[in-house]
What we know:
This protein has helices spanning 2-15, 28-37. The chain contains 2 helices and no strands. Helix content is 63%, strand content 0%.
Amino acid sequence: MMKAIKFAHAAAAIAVTRAGAQPSVPWRHEIEAFLSAA
């Protein structure tokens, strides 16, 4: 469960840095890169 929450938080952190609704949704590889950099 915690893994899913961390993944969702990372996706949200990336999404809020972009404009638009659909275009702001990050790809899985972007989320994984974000998590590995943390």
